[in-house]
Amino acid sequence: MAQAKAGDRVKVHYTGRLDDGTVFDSSECGEDECGCGAGPIEFTIGAGQVIPGFDAGVTGLSAGESKTIHIPVEEAYGERVEEMVAVVPRSELPEGMNPEPGQQLEVSQADGQVFQVMVTEVTDDTFTIDGNHPLAGQALNFDLTLVEIVEG
Question: What is this structure's pTM?
Answer without folding.
Answer: 0.79
